[in-house]
Amino acid sequence: METKQLGKTGIFVSAIGLGGMPMSIYNRPPESQSIPVIHRALDLGVTFIDTADSYCKDESDKHHNERLIHKALTSYKGDISQVIVATKGGLMRPDGSWTRNGSPEYLRQTIRVSFEALGAAKPIDVWQYHSPDSNYTIEESLAPVKEAVEAGLIRFVGVSNFSVEQIKRSRDVVDIVSVQNQYSPWERQPENDGVLKYCEQEGLTFLPWSPFGGSRRHQNLQDIPAIAQLAKEKGVSVYNIVLAWLRSKSPSVLPIPGASKISSIEDSVQAINVTLSDEELQKIDRAT
């Protein structure tokens, strides 16, 4: 598995990660299906796993995905010493909806629960502020995060759904190693708002969420002629083409495709071997 540095930490992780969200929301698969998916990802050399406290059905189910990942890691027979788990906090799931909560008191509490859900044996590898809450300044919301770093609960910090200005303000409070924003053939804002360029310039890892467009759109990739044609020509899936396209955008990009089936993660890691020419990349750009 190809690797790349996480921010400027000196730590190298797999160039394609695993997103845990599909294993814990809505029509989640049984645990007996999900844990083998995580184990297979590890077998394939995946050493970066993305999760969140809000990857669950509702508030009564909070931290489900974190606990699932911890259970999978502790039951894995191989070496997990190089595995990095990145979680997030700052979203709540009342009745299954998604709401922001950047209250310092709430973030302080959910960081502690995430620490325990992930095993409490070591600091959280990467904790990311899930989405800025306009009811609180970024400085207010990140103050307890800095406290958690100093207290040994968090090793590295990232932000999610942030603009360049917001990232800069975050870095004045605490060191940032990663930025996780939406990026897919249908959502190309990181190219236009300067976030992707900023991450590359500053050595921050960029984690594109919903790289295939999410649960509602991923099946429509076949309907984008340029992507479908390239997949056919190269004998790979349309998902491989999208991951290769994202990776070509910047050396900062580390895709984290979600998976709830072994076949899905097996397919995703194959994108490492897919190379797109400048002409092919332009065809995709023009079609999306």
Overall mean pLDDT stands at: 95
What is the radius of gyration? Answer: 18 Å
Biggest sheet statistics: 7 strands, parallel
Number of strands: 11
Distance between the termini: 29 Å
Detail the poorly predicted runs: none
Task: Give the DSSP E fraction (strand runs of 2 or more residues).
Answer: 15-25%
Structural description of this entry:
There is one protein chain. This protein has 288 residues and is of the alpha/beta class. The strands form three sheets. The protein has a seven-stranded parallel sheet with strand order 3-4-5-8-9-10-11, covered by helices on one side. A two-stranded antiparallel ribbon has the order 1-2. It has a two-stranded antiparallel sheet with strand order 6-7. α1 crosses α2. 39% of the residues lie in helices and 15% in strands. It has eleven helices and eleven strands. β9 (154-160), α5 (164-171) and β10 (178-182) form a beta-alpha-beta unit. The chain is globular, with a radius of gyration of 18 Å.
Any key phrases for this structure?
single chain; 288 residues; alpha/beta; seven-stranded parallel β-sheet; two-stranded antiparallel ribbon; 11 helices; 15% strand; globular
